[in-house]
Amino acid sequence: MGAALPAGLSSWMQSSCRRRQPAGASSRNAAPAPRPPGVPSAEELRDTWLLAVQEEDAAAAGYCARICESLRGAEAFAATDGLDAFISVAMGQSTKGSGGGLMVALAQALMMDMTAFKEAVFETLCAAAHWPSLKGRIAGSGVLGVITATLLSPRHPASVKALMVRLCGLLAADSLEAISLGDPRRAEEFAKLRGQLISSGGVKAIVSLAATEGLAAPAAATTVAQLACAGDTAIRSELLQADAVPALLRCVARMSEAQSEETADDSDVEMEEDTAPEAAAAAIARLLAFEGDGCQEMTYPVAFITAPLCEELLAPVLQPSALKDFCDLLHVSGKRRAVEQVLRCLELAGSRHDAWPPLEPELCEDLRKMLVFRSDVAANYLQALHGHYGAKATLRCFGDLKSLQRALEAYSLPSASALLESLAATQACGQCGVIPQNLMACGRCGQIAYCSRECQRQHWKLHKQACSQKKEEPA
Q1: Is the pLDDT of residue 261 over 70?
Q2: Is the pTM of this model over 0.85?
Q3: Using CB atoms within 10 A of its CB, is residue 17 exposed (0-12), middle (13-18) or buried (19+)?
Q4: What are the helix (H) ranges across 113-216?
């Protein structure tokens, strides 16, 4: 390269590439190179993005992306005209050669592979677009057309498509904080962008990616929820026609398929974890929870849950077959975060939409196992089942209440405390802890009951002393 690296960029690259020092090295040599400060100086930022643009330096552009991950860094980057420069690059402008512009950028998106430098430029725009103060500036630049063309082109790898999907979600859906301000002009501009995404076929492409097994699937699942929650009737109608929610459900169902493949594979080759089912379950949970989670406090203007179109969009999740499939996925081992997202979907389907699965021993056993591993979601869902089906029906389905009590005693949640109170008020077999239809009280003291004579006989060694003392107490 003809230009020298700025000091901050040089130190960052050195710290990123520095190898671990061997044992016995001096503390001076073992200390890692200092990372650049939270927000570099304006001169350093300007020198860095100028180097990136003039030399098409991917490392310098990547440094700008890292800076934009914080709000202060992103606003400082924009203040030095770096954001406008990167938008121009994304739109086809170049300091090398002649020509350029939107048509060139669209042609490059459709017919040319994306360079590492160009990918880093879009990563920077993606990082900056997370912040409401900069989101509208990027969205209004017209760069969404280039992003959509890149998404629709079959020549780009999954990593590039994932990046484009994330940008579509960020630039076509405004933040809830900005929506709550009720700016009609801003809302109209974002509605136009969603219309552009619909007319180009971008929404259907995103939905199709959500059901695939590629790297773009997690980003696509998240973007579907972004568009539905921060969109309007037009985008939700498009999501409905594209079968967005069934695509998410198919993605979630891959949890069990992945476990079967892992069980069947006896090789020592470490397979990359598929995070798409977890992202899809989180997206479904976000749709089910949209009316709450702070949206009401922000006076969000769209009544998502009560709109008939949105009820139709969510209908596949609330079907008994879908709820049963969710319950079956609770058996999957080794994917705790994904399983907890599935359980959150079940809890929200019941508490927000009154859709409950049958109360079966298999479901209760899965909840008991999750409680042992300190799952707050499991404790909350058990409390929800307790409120819907009643204390006696829910606790009877668990069988042994002693192990359930031990699991709940480790929690400090209000839901766990309420369940422990219910357990204390419920009479169960003194030996096995189950709640049968009929209990037989001890004939001597009448203070404990059993489900069978066999349980009474087995428990007599423990109960004998207390029973005798109770019998000897004066009436």
Answers
A1: no
A2: no
A3: exposed
A4: 116-128, 132-139, 144-152, 158-172, 176-180, 184-199, 202-210
